[in-house]
Amino acid sequence: MQHEEVVQITPLVKRITAGNSSVFTGPGTNTYIVGKEEDLTVVDPGPALSDHIEAIVSCSSNLSRIVVTHTHPDHSPGVSLLQNKVDIPAYGLITETTKNQDTSFKPEKMLTHGEVIEAKDHKLEVIHTPGHASNHLCFLLKEEKLLFTGDHIMNGSTVVISPPDGNMQDYLDSLNKLKEYDLENIAPGHGELLPNPHSVAEWIIKHRLEREEKVIEAIKEVTKGNPDTLVEQVYSDVDAALFPIAKWSLEAHLIKLQNEKRVVKEGNQFIWKDS
């Protein structure tokens, strides 16, 4: 994917990928411009990179609004830079936590689940999808049955679930929620378009539950443990260089099991609870 290049991916949608590729962001954060010529919507202005914001502004003089999937540092900091150049409102949600959040994001409008944002030639339905982040939203472009998923679903990797704002049970519930919608393609926050959205969601759910089984096997074997002591066994199929990141999702799995009363926590140790 070429950074800062405007790519027409559907009749109504253009994509611009920011130059912030990394282990977290893959090829970079995708910004989407929705609409043909007038009354356009910007989905996720991305990081605060001047070249990326210039590419968004140069794409059209008819930008009308910004919508934000969530407030992680690679998705929303570009809002203020873009608003410095174009006087348009931003819509989204904020969180109560500040860890790994863009606290500068102050939306002119707080969105609600089921709300529909109407523009001249397109409508975006708001779908609240907590899990990766408590304030995570997806946006369904109804005219093309295209779902902008931010970090709810990425192309190329599974997403990190990092407590306290990330919640594994919420994430699984939000994936199941997508089955309620008529979808044809996913426009992820990172990577190329994904077809067969329902099959993609089912695969992710299956993968997460298989990982949870490895967590259960590991903690049963040693009776008690924590992300530091369990990560090597639970993520034996993953490059050890990624263990520091994997430990966040491992903690989310352990908290889910704790909430289900399958483990108890004493100090920093999670202990398997015999039935």
From TrEMBL:
<dbReference type="InterPro" id="IPR036866">
    <property type="entry name" value="RibonucZ/Hydroxyglut_hydro"/>
</dbReference>
<protein>
    <recommendedName>
        <fullName>Metallo-beta-lactamase domain-containing protein</fullName>
    </recommendedName>
</protein>
<dbReference type="InterPro" id="IPR050662">
    <property type="entry name" value="Sec-metab_biosynth-thioest"/>
</dbReference>
<dbReference type="Pfam" id="PF00753">
    <property type="entry name" value="Lactamase_B"/>
</dbReference>
<feature type="domain" description="Metallo-beta-lactamase">
    <location>
        <begin position="28"/>
        <end position="190"/>
    </location>
</feature>
<dbReference type="InterPro" id="IPR001279">
    <property type="entry name" value="Metallo-B-lactamas"/>
</dbReference>
<dbReference type="InterPro" id="IPR041516">
    <property type="entry name" value="LACTB2_WH"/>
</dbReference>
<dbReference type="InterPro" id="IPR036388">
    <property type="entry name" value="WH-like_DNA-bd_sf"/>
</dbReference>
<dbReference type="Pfam" id="PF17778">
    <property type="entry name" value="WHD_BLACT"/>
</dbReference>
